[in-house]
Amino acid sequence: MAIIVRMPEIATGTDSAGIAGWLVAVGEEVAVGQPLVEIETEKATVEFEAESAGTLAGTLLAPGTSASVGTPIAVLADAGESLEAALAAAGVGGEADPAPAAAPAPAAPAAAAPAAAAPAAAEAREPGARVFVSPLVRKLARERGLDLSAVRGTGPGGRIVRRDIEALGAAEHAAGTAPAPAAAAAPGAAVPAAAAPAPVAAGSAVAGSAVGGSAVAGSAVAGSAAFEDVPHTGMRRAIARRLTESKSTVPHFYLVAHCRVDALLALRAQIIETTGTRVSVNDLVVKAVGAALRDVPEANAIWTDEATRRFTGVDISVAVSVPGGLLTPVVRGVERLSVGELGAAIRDLAERARAGKLRQQELEGGSFSVSNLGMTGTSEFAAILNPPQSGILAVGAAEPRPVVETDGSLGVATMMTVTLSADHRVLDGVLAAEWLAAFTKRIEQPLSLLV
Rounded to whole angstroms, how far apart are CA atoms 398 and 409? Predict the structure, then answer.
């Protein structure tokens, strides 16, 4: 019996996504859990794994196209079923794309061009040649007024990816040229020249503002400062929507603790010296968060419309800064991982997050997040919850501070301030305080993290 593969909901609240590229060709067998297609959303490109086994009979969406969640995107043939029969049973017949992997091969590398030339520019394509572009890149190009017909894609099969248009935009800026306007002017409106606007000195009159990547004339404001409008990317819009939803619908409250981390730093140095294992302070913090969730299991929960859902395992999201925004991949089974294994898992997720290679399930689930700005020198901050998770720990820098010792004397210790943001629907004040005390104890007695 034919199996219809539908556009998945990659992240909570996502109502549509695009096909970045197919990872399996028509006629190839597919196993459960095998990466089938790259799905592109506003925030990331992730690999979607097959949920059923079969043979790929045909694809219903080509790379560069998008559709709403739940839309059929491919058909799998069951064991012993012909590809044609599977397509017919699915009701698509000859509508399926017979050759999803038939994207044009990338052109051979050209000779080195002058620095001012666009790195992604290529020879003109043959008339009617198909341009493979992801939905996000197409949107960015439209916002910035970039012409994609002269861009050679460096992605799989010659697909134009974000780095190509970033390189094109940077080259045009360096050359002193401006992209063509993204949209035609309204009938009867004066059309400005295609040259880039001259820079406006601070304190001089401003003639207009940039909207959607094109200059829009406006009334001059005497004495105003120069400015530039940077069009919103899909990722920034998604972040804005999710965080606004979180702050407006989830009752946040905050608790602060100051942890003494001298013993933690000494343990880290000893682990590195004796085993050669790469261990960061953040690895130990995430391990302590997982241990505290085991110490106070009532805190390892999320809110649903029907019930408070408590978890038996510990899955923790780790905030990762990526170009243009932030992703929070989930580390599974933190309570089962050694510190070394946990560090390796976090590094792997962070590297693939920045490369746009995360899988769908790696962005889903978890009851808790860790956001660490200590490496930037930030002493203290509060983070916004990542729904449906009920807690997020904001971690500041470890720095020397004066402390009062137990005997009343004044000393200096390395201290780290952490702020717990909690969902009051799940965590009451006392419960949140118990969890934060358990975390502090784990941090200040770090040998407990190794057993």
Answer: 22
Based on DSSP, count helices (H) and strands (E) in the chain, helices before strands: 8, 21
> What residue spans of 33-92 are helical by DSSP H?
83-90
**Active-site residue flag, 424:** yes
**Per-residue tokens: 348:** 């792997």
Check if the beta carbon of residue 175 is closer than 8 Å to that of residue 116. yes
CA atoms lying within 13 Å on the CB side of residue 418: 28
- Each residue's pLDDT expressed in tens, for the chain with a length of 451 residues: 789 999 988 766 677 888 888 999 999 999 998 989 988 876 677 888 899 999 999 999 888 888 888 899 999 998 888 888 888 887 765 445 544 433 333 333 333 333 333 334 444 445 445 566 665 677 677 777 777 777 777 765 566 776 777 677 666 555 554 444 433 333 333 333 334 444 433 433 333 333 344 444 444 466 788 999 988 877 788 888 889 999 999 999 999 999 999 999 999 999 999 999 999 999 999 999 999 999 999 999 999 999 999 999 999 999 999 888 889 999 999 999 999 999 999 999 999 998 888 887 888 899 999 999 999 999 999 999 999 999 999 999 999 999 999 899 999 999 999 999 999 999 999 999 999 999 999 999 999 999 8
Which residues are within 8 A (CB) of 123 and not within 5 positions of it... i.e. 6 or more apart? 107
Closest by Cα among 262, 276, 268 to 412: 262
Long-range CB contact pairs, 146-154, < 8 A, 24+? 146/179, 147/179, 147/180, 149/124, 149/125, 150/121, 150/122, 150/124, 151/118, 151/120, 151/121, 151/122, 152/106, 152/107, 152/120, 152/121, 152/122, 153/106, 153/120, 154/106, 154/120
Strands 54-59 and 3-6: unpaired
Residue whose C-alpha is closest to residue 2's, from 73, 56, 60, 67: 56
Q: Which amino acid is at 396?
A: G
Spatial separation of the C-alpha atoms in residues 433 and 254, rounded to whole Å: 10
Pairing of strands 54-59, 29-30: antiparallel
Measured distance CA(224)–CA(205) in Å, rounded = 6
> Which candidate in 173, 232, 258, 424 is catalytic?
424
156 burial (CB, 10 Å; 0-12 / 13-18 / 19+) is: middle
Query: What is the Cα–Cα distance from 235 to 366, expressed in whole angstroms?
Result: 21
Of 317, 328, 418, nearest in space to 369 by CA: 317
DSSP 189-230: PPPPPSSPPPP--TTSPEEEEEETTEEEEEEEETTPPP----
Helix 234-249 to helix 135-144 angle (10° resolution) is 100
Q: Nearest 5°: phi and psi at 247?
A: -70, -25
